[in-house]
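Researcher: Sequence of MHS family MFS transporter follows. Predict its structure.
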Amino acid sequence: MKENSNPDKVNSLKHVLFGSLIGTTIEFFDFYIYANAAVLVFPQLFFPGSSPTISTIESLATFSIAFFARPIGSAVFGHYGDKIGRKTTLVVALLTMGISTVVIGFLPTYASIGIAAPLLLMLFRFGQGLGLGGEWGGAVLLAIENAPPGKRAWYGMFPQLGAPIGLLLSGGTFLLLSDTLTNEQFFDYGWRIPFISSAILVVIGFYIRLKITETPSFLATLETKKQVKIPMITLLNSYKRELVFGTLAAVTTFVTFYLMTVFSLSWATTDLGFTRRDFLIMQLFSVVFFGISIPISAVFADKFGRRLVLIIISIAIAIFGLFFSSLLGSGNTTLITLFLCLGMALMGMTYGPLGTFLSELFPTEVRYSGASLTFNFAGIFGAAFAPIIAIWIAKNFGITYVGYYLSAAAVMTFFSLLLIRKKDHLF
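Model: Prediction complete. Tokens:
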């Protein structure tokens, strides 16, 4: 692989790692403030209905829209990321996500404009999904395509750290608002503050992304003229197996995360009697374990292989699902905190090496599209309806069966990982 001939244009370690981390932090902050609002705010302000459960389900349905937008974003941004480069594509993806988020903060509610309010909310939620669909793959490639031999999983975990950091920022923001505003103030204007203030983070990320240059791997495809005309067609013709099993291999990551966050928050504040503030504190504490386990998993992944680490953690998640009732269903603060910490630690262990694993399934000329599509298709199957499915299961069959739902997803991922094989010559 040829390096960039101009040493002034080579990405420094600082730019590579911080540039990949800052973008995903901003993107996930934007994504998670919507998740919090979809549980805590939007049911009352955008979906006033006959019952709190129906309003919550309608609100969570808009939450799922972004997961259908993400593969479209992957296809569009992935196409240009593989054709014209990672840098420009990453900048545009960041702006798409950021602008959509800020506009949500200014939307009038159902009481002001009626049915137009939820329709506009869905439109800009779709925009959030488009941006994130293009962001994640490019950020991971920025990291791993600049990584030295034997360090790809370590470099690849830096954009993954954006998830716990973004979650801490979003949860912390909602907690701060809950502590400083009355309930009336929070629902009147307080909920808008996180959405509008994300503009500051977007400006910072935009500046940093402009300083990044192209990765050596992408420059090599330009020099050797290995680019393909339409990456999507190449993927469907030559990499169907990688797309299918890569998607299934990532599903449990999404199911785990959204059961630990969106579903748990909804269930605890409606059926278990926890206040919004108390449960957010418990969730924020568990996110620390999420963040710590990501670099630990990367070390193991570089030493023992990405696939083996993911297989072992899938088994652990399947076992963890069997304890849903005794932990989350207990209603006990200590046991529920333990539940959240264990779940988020397992989430970090599977999330840390995932970006590197999915990226290594595809060659450079279709890697942006391939890695993004597998990750975001998994988002549809593993996250788009996970909170709604879990609420329905819990209401009709009990919390134990929500755990079985998680275990079933983990078993499916386990077999997918056994069936998939990475082509070592691609990198």
